[in-house]
Amino acid sequence: GLPRDHPESYHYYMWNNLFKHIDIDPKNVHILDGNASNLEKECEKFEENIKKSGGVELFVGGIGPDGHIAFNEPGSSLVSRTRVKTLAQDTLEANARFFDNDVSKVPKQALTVGVGTVMDAREVMVLITGAHKAFALYKAIEEGVNHMWTVSAFQQHPRTIMICDEDATLELRVKT
């Protein structure tokens, strides 16, 4: 529901942090529209456009401290597709810093690609930084696949790379 030009909207973030810095035709950028009149149809259209374009070549994403990828909160289906997702309280609290530290101003829902949508990408790159995400990295790679730690699904993806800083590795048992 945030306007595209709101500084905390995903659209604004992607344009100002990536797309305006690279040579890309704006018609080749596809971002879910959280202001679409029918959010479910918007998600279906997004999935259709992925198929029409031949699929996702490279998915780049980060994780939350609770191990969610995109907005696939703990407990999300590991075969989920692009959809409307209600955000977990931890996510609302983590994002309050972007809304004057007022959790009541944080949107309660988001449009997100599903875990299954990301699993269909030919390659996946996950960026993990900071000690506050160290336990999530541990759960992602040193324990089994679990829908409560949705990033763990990428253990089963043939071409996933996790890029992390040293602080993010603090909880790992295997120190390589």
UniProtKB/TrEMBL annotation:
Its EC number is 3.5.99.6. SUPFAM superfamilies: NagB/RpiA/CoA transferase-like. CDD domains: GlcN6P_deaminase (cd01399). Pathway: Nucleotide-sugar biosynthesis; UDP-N-acetyl-alpha-D-glucosamine biosynthesis; alpha-D-glucosamine 6-phosphate from D-fructose 6-phosphate: step 1/1. Transmembrane segments: none annotated. Residues 2-158 form the Glucosamine/galactosamine-6-phosphate isomerase domain. Keywords: Carbohydrate metabolism, Cytoplasm, Hydrolase, Isomerase. It is found in: Cytoplasm. The keyword Heme does not apply. InterPro entries: Glc/Gal-6P_isomerase (IPR006148), Glucosamine6P_isomerase (IPR004547), Glucosamine6P_isomerase_CS (IPR018321), NagB/RpiA_transferase-like (IPR037171). GO terms for biological process: carbohydrate metabolic process; glucosamine catabolic process; N-acetylglucosamine catabolic process; N-acetylneuraminate catabolic process. Homohexamer. Catalyzes the reversible conversion of alpha-D-glucosamine 6-phosphate (GlcN-6P) into beta-D-fructose 6-phosphate (Fru-6P) and ammonium ion, a regulatory reaction step in de novo uridine diphosphate-N-acetyl-alpha-D-glucosamine (UDP-GlcNAc) biosynthesis via hexosamine pathway. This is Glucosamine-6-phosphate isomerase. It comes from Ischnura verticalis (Eastern forktail damselfly). The lineage of its organism: Eukaryota, Metazoa, Ecdysozoa, Arthropoda, Hexapoda.
